[in-house]
Amino acid sequence: MRSLFPLTLTGATIRRKGKRLVGPIDLTLQDQGITIVIGPNGAGKTSLLRMMHGIARLSDGAINWGCDLDTAHAAQSFVFQQPILLRRSVRDNIAYPLRLRGIAKAMARAQADTAGTRVGLGPMLDRPATFLSGGERQKLAIARALITKPALLFLDEPCASLDGRATREIEEILRQAATSGTRLIMSTHDMGQARRLADDVLFLLKGHIHEHAPTPLFFDQPQTAEAAAFLNGDIVE
Amino acid sequence: MSDLWEGIGQALWLLVTLDADLVEITLRSLRVTLTALVIACAIALPIGAFLAVRRFRARRFTIALLNALMGLPPVVVGLIVYVLLSRSGPFGVMGLIFTPTAMIIAQVVIIVPLISSIAHQALRELWSDYHDLLISLNTTQRQRMAALLWDGRRALLTAALAGFGRAIGEVGAIMIVGGNIDHHTRVLTTAIALETGKGDFAMALGLGFVLILLAIAVNLAIHIIGRTEQEGRW
């Protein structure tokens, strides 16, 4: 199979009701590492991720993958800021993407058990998904997103409103996924998390990419005043 | 007042002695309505799911139409089905008029709009929860409908029960297309209408209580089978 990458955005823009949410974005991403998207609220982080994933319609511009669109869509997953749980057991939630691909129930469930246990949901596989706590829900969403072995995983602030321990556990899962070859593109508000995980950083401001740089460089020597101010914890608008 | 007490007394007597006519009429009522319910659900639930997941031009109109058809007068449905099935009608050769099948057809026509409308209301909410995930997972329309119907099954039970309630208590349409023929198409509601017309209020009331008990029993049975109010919120 041809690689998804390079992913190229040219002048990609999303407008809704006359308001520009994000763009125009010109960007090329290669197939290695973890890209972290940061920026203030309303900068367009979520819109950018949704646009790349193809669940938000482009108003302008184009997004090109290294392969055809159907293959590209099938090889990526998305973890939403608010985990979306199916009204099923934890096991059946994780198995659902496999069931969609026509894998037999017993096999899908067996794989879901393995995947669920790996993220620490082993004791809760039989429970309805809505009984889970916030951190567990997010782990379920990540396990479900990873079960199809995607080449690319989008995460929209997966650790927002989670405590330190849950965040650490999720970061560990993500690091393992990255090590085993999944490309991650993730937005976050947590600068510590950005430092810990990022190979490169996209700093978004008012719907534009304000700065895009590899990790140590971005944090040590931000090129723009706004990025420096944002890293300092100043309020950037 | 004495009619009421006599009716209760007679109802109990009919029940305790398992009156042959009563059992026969009750079973026929159940058979006709449950068959109609199964057929109507098979048609109406996919319609509800389809309206929830698919955006098309005539969608608003279709929903408004279904809501309007919920109040379809049974007598008119009966009349139309009668005209279609009667010997001189387009489907007359099938010989269905004055048979339980004709009654089932009439009841299906009456409850399909009701069930699909309630199902659509319930599934619309579920769809707004699931929307982003199911789009992200590249589901086909069929898979989306299947996910909604399966995960929304508890809510759909309510839709089915509403349909059952309307069908079991319906008299106008099945009287016209069934003809209330003894041992053939007589059901609880048409029997009640007949006994009332004859002035036998005690018998009519007796049958009426049986009808109410039946409706409650079926509802309870479905709730117990479906285990609603247990296992969390769905």
UniProtKB/TrEMBL annotation, chain A:
<feature type="domain" description="ABC transporter">
    <location>
        <begin position="7"/>
        <end position="231"/>
    </location>
</feature>
<dbReference type="InterPro" id="IPR027417">
    <property type="entry name" value="P-loop_NTPase"/>
</dbReference>
<dbReference type="GO" id="GO:0005524">
    <property type="term" value="F:ATP binding"/>
</dbReference>
<keyword id="KW-0547">Nucleotide-binding</keyword>
<dbReference type="InterPro" id="IPR050093">
    <property type="entry name" value="ABC_SmlMolc_Importer"/>
</dbReference>
<keyword id="KW-0067">ATP-binding</keyword>
<dbReference type="InterPro" id="IPR003593">
    <property type="entry name" value="AAA+_ATPase"/>
</dbReference>
<protein>
    <submittedName>
        <fullName>ATP-binding cassette domain-containing protein</fullName>
    </submittedName>
</protein>
<dbReference type="InterPro" id="IPR017871">
    <property type="entry name" value="ABC_transporter-like_CS"/>
</dbReference>
<dbReference type="InterPro" id="IPR003439">
    <property type="entry name" value="ABC_transporter-like_ATP-bd"/>
</dbReference>
<dbReference type="Pfam" id="PF00005">
    <property type="entry name" value="ABC_tran"/>
</dbReference>
<dbReference type="GO" id="GO:0016887">
    <property type="term" value="F:ATP hydrolysis activity"/>
</dbReference>
<keyword id="KW-0813">Transport</keyword>
UniProtKB/TrEMBL annotation, chain B:
<dbReference type="InterPro" id="IPR049783">
    <property type="entry name" value="ABC_perm_TupB-like"/>
</dbReference>
<feature type="domain" description="ABC transmembrane type-1">
    <location>
        <begin position="26"/>
        <end position="222"/>
    </location>
</feature>
<keyword id="KW-1133">Transmembrane helix</keyword>
<dbReference type="GO" id="GO:0055085">
    <property type="term" value="P:transmembrane transport"/>
</dbReference>
<keyword id="KW-0812">Transmembrane</keyword>
<feature type="transmembrane region" description="Helical">
    <location>
        <begin position="91"/>
        <end position="115"/>
    </location>
</feature>
<feature type="transmembrane region" description="Helical">
    <location>
        <begin position="201"/>
        <end position="225"/>
    </location>
</feature>
<dbReference type="Pfam" id="PF00528">
    <property type="entry name" value="BPD_transp_1"/>
</dbReference>
<dbReference type="InterPro" id="IPR000515">
    <property type="entry name" value="MetI-like"/>
</dbReference>
<protein>
    <submittedName>
        <fullName>ABC transporter permease subunit</fullName>
    </submittedName>
</protein>
<dbReference type="GO" id="GO:0005886">
    <property type="term" value="C:plasma membrane"/>
</dbReference>
<feature type="transmembrane region" description="Helical">
    <location>
        <begin position="65"/>
        <end position="85"/>
    </location>
</feature>
<feature type="transmembrane region" description="Helical">
    <location>
        <begin position="32"/>
        <end position="53"/>
    </location>
</feature>
<keyword id="KW-0472">Membrane</keyword>
<feature type="transmembrane region" description="Helical">
    <location>
        <begin position="155"/>
        <end position="181"/>
    </location>
</feature>
<dbReference type="InterPro" id="IPR035906">
    <property type="entry name" value="MetI-like_sf"/>
</dbReference>
<keyword id="KW-0813">Transport</keyword>
<comment type="similarity">
    <text>Belongs to the binding-protein-dependent transport system permease family.</text>
</comment>
